[in-house]
Amino acid sequence: MSDPLVELEQLAVHFPVARGRAVRAVDGVDLVIDEAETLGLVGESGCGKSTLARATTRLVPISSGSLRYRGQDLTDADERRLRAFRRHVRIVFQDPYGSLNPRMTVRQIVAQPLEIHRVGRRSERDDRVRELLTTVGLDAAAASRYPHEFSGGQRQRVSIARALALDPELLVLDEPVSALDVSIQAQIISLLRRLREEMGLSYLFISHDLAVVRHIADRVAVMYLGRIVEQGARDQVFDRPQHPYTRALLSAVPDPNPATRGETRRIRLHGEPPDPADPPSGCRFRTRCWKADDLCAAVEPELVGDDGHVAACHHPE
Amino acid sequence: MGVSLTFVVVAAGLLAPWLAPNDPFAVDGPPLASPSGRYPMGTDALGRDLFSGIIFGARTAVIVAGITGIIVLVVGLLVGTVSGYIGGRVDDLLMRITEFFQVIPRFFTAIIVIALFGPGLDRLVLVLGFTSWSLLARVIRSEVLSLREREFVEAARADGASHVRIMTRELLPNAIPAAMVFVGLIMAQVLLIEASLGFLGLGDPNAMSWGFLASQAQQFLRVAWWMSVFPGLAIIVAVLGLNLLGDAVTDQVGGRR
Amino acid sequence: MSTGRAPVLDVRDLTIVVGSGRGARTVVDDVMLQTARGETLGIVGESGSGKTLTMLGALGLLPDGVHRQRGDVTLGGIDVTGAKARTMRALRGRDVGMIFQDPLTSLHPSLRICSQLVEGLRVHDRALTRRGARSRAAELLERVQVPNARERMDDYPHQWSGGMRQRAMIAMAIMHEPSLIVADEPTTALDVTVQAQMLELLAEARDESGASLVLISHDIGVIAQIADRVAVMYAGRVVERGAVGEIFARPRHPYTAGLLASVPTLRDVPGELSVIGGQPPDRTAVTGCAFEPRCPIGNGELACQTVRPVMLGGIHEVACHVAQVSELA
């Protein structure tokens, strides 16, 4: 069997804070992303999903565990060794306003990865920029303009064009549509679906919005307080959730259709996620879980299950 | 406004030999002549043309403020960017050095240097340049500190950009606009110091200076108002122009954010 | 759309313009809104649709450079369009409670939470003692379910989580028993699990006080969850209006229909999302319908390009030529 595209093993990212404590933003995560596959990663703010995105692209140092790209261990690799990795694994950020340098033209922004990796001559790069802009549904004339002249959705297209410039294999998409209007969200999602088909891309699609993830992911992982609590094929997770947190998340998604509203029993979670610098003992979700008992406080549950559908819960559904 | 004021001063300075009707040091006409067609700003006690003096004074002002400004920009940007971007020990070290330069009294140092090595524009410019960059370095550093966390910098790192590239392409272009106000401010201060030194008779004897002209006017305040008014006006125009210019540049380029 | 009672807030022909002279653009155009006691009106629209400006305009809170060109607004029967700034302030403080998207920007960062509540309470009730106000503040925080309210009320805003800060905002909004609560994207910055708690709390606050709630949101799911009636805004105009169940089940305006179809839900077939092409404009159309360039049905129709659609229909109103024609046929 060939190596998966990207493989995270017991990956952890800890940020030191005051008085010797550390925020355990990501705390032992196993994930595998195969070729031409979209893995959706769902979680609420502060669960560590953005840090995981940055660790997967080696933008933050990895505290422990490992990151492998096509079998090659890149956990501690220096920038020189990361060169090929940086070409093939690209990231798109959430904020369409903050992620583009306001003093560069769209051409400079999209051409930057080409320049850095010394791809083509200047005129060839300009051609490539025009081609990329057309691919993402922008006018080629956009190249000479500045980011502030574009709307949020158009800027996100520029970010995607930049990410595509080096013919990547994997795009890490960190909440790529969360800052966008509803009608624009749908446009970007369908653009991503089209690009995936045309180029055989893999995605790590990160979002807090379960409904969005359901529309693009082949497999889904649910993250809570630095850990994966459930993982499986899309329909397994959405139709037969095992972890109480997944169930609660699913039931909290508002349903705009008045005809079907009220069919799902709503589960009200009380409180908010605990401080990641001081997670609860045992199961991290137990402080908000209606099923929690002494076992949950004492023993941290392992991810178990069959048929690729796993959940970390002592009392799964 | 700032642009036009500064432009007038810079043009006067650059074109001094062609603009000025006379050699500013040459005794040319009657002493203490009031402004007239021949002497637009009058003459001093020795009959030297004040208008020519003002124009050549602008040349000195432009040289001093300009070269100091360049030294300040180069050192300030370099120290500020490196310090803010790299952080850690490098930052600590650079900031201690910056603080050292910040507490040096500029005027006093300039006087000491002149006392030790004699008056001269070259050493004045060097002294002022190297004692004035600290403010700019701190401003740039704090800008860079906040810019460093922005997503577009992270995106550049993901592109595989080197540290030098990130500093020059991502950070500096975004940090400079906010810093321009301070460059204008620093240049205006330098101008005032130069004028003050001239006033105290510590200026370069071979370079005409507004401060020198103003000091000459002291004894004749009552009989020859023009001798004090015109150098004073020149200083005000230049200082105001530089301040406004800094503001204008910041507003202009800042608008693109 | 009469509810049989006098409306708490009655907005008629509200038109709001940004800038002046040649550069002026109309961002809110002839908007009509009424809301009655105990009822929740949802205003749904994308950014730039004018939904927030409509409410700011109605409450006399427009930022500099934006002004009301015409229109009448009454609040509790009082005409507020001609009211002096002082009268407006008193009216807003007492009769209107406001909740914004980001509680961190609406709370004073260097004042303790309880001081902010105490200040607010005493501004409108001079007789209240500091001690009395403090215990009122604690009650309010308990009412909005802030855990350990009495211990934590002396914290600064940054020590509280986003959800708790939003609870504090709700407490401040309801402390004078207002007749109108305006919540502008109150849950957008919050996580889904916290969002559900907050919506429930808002509905409770409305029911307990009998106030009218105006909920502004881009999120159709949020609106569907607690609104009774909804007004859909596009490019500064209300394009469709009526009961929530009716509008979301049988949208008549192509924009509403497109919007509903483009929202991913947990029920639709994965991957089948319909897409409205193009970008929403940043101003209203001078002639015709502002949605015409993006409209799957009306695009290119002469009437849609040239004639401004007006709101027609009884309890389910729509401003659209094609919807109106198709119903006549």
Strand-helix topology:
The complex is a heterotrimer of chains A (317), B (257) and C (329).
Chain A: E1 6-16, E2 22-33, E3 38-42, H1 49-56, E4 64-69, E5 72-73, H2 83-88, E6 89-92, H3 106-116, H4 122-135, H5 152-164, E7 170-174, H6 182-199, E8 202-207, H7 210-214, E9 219-224, E10 227-233, H8 234-239, H9 244-252, H10 294-298, E11 304-306, E12 309-311
Helix pairs in contact in A: 3-4, 3-5, 4-5
Chain B: H1 2-14, H2 16-19, H3 50-86, H4 88-103, H5 106-117, H6 121-148, H7 151-159, H8 163-199, H9 210-217, H10 225-254
Chain C: E1 9-18, E2 25-35, E3 40-44, H1 51-58, E4 66-75, E5 78-79, H2 85-95, E6 96-99, H3 103-106, H4 113-124, H5 130-143, H6 149-152, H7 162-174, E7 180-184, H8 192-209, E8 212-217, H9 220-226, E9 229-234, E10 237-243, H10 244-249, H11 254-262, H12 302-306, E11 317-318, H13 321-328
Parallel strand pairs in C: 3-8, 3-9, 6-7, 7-8
Antiparallel strand pairs in C: 1-2, 1-4, 4-5, 9-10, 10-11
Gist?
With 257 residues, chain B is mostly helical.
Explain what you see.
The complex is a heterotrimer of chains A (317), B (257) and C (329). In chain A, 30% of the residues lie in helices and 22% in strands. Chain A contains ten helices and twelve strands. In chain A, the strands form two sheets. An eight-stranded mixed sheet of chain A has the order 6-7-8-3-9-10-12-11, with helices on both faces. Chain A has a four-stranded antiparallel sheet with strand order 2-1-4-5. In chain A, β9 and β10 (227-233) form a beta hairpin. Chain A is globular. Chain B has a single domain (2-254), classed as MetI-like fold, CATH 1.10.3720. In chain C, α4 packs across α5, α5 (130-143) crosses α7 and α7 (162-174) runs parallel beside α8. Classes of the chains: A alpha/beta (317), B mainly alpha (257), C alpha/beta (329). Chains in contact: A-B, A-C. At the A-C interface, α5, α6, α7 and α9 of A face α7, α8, α9, α10 and α11 of C.
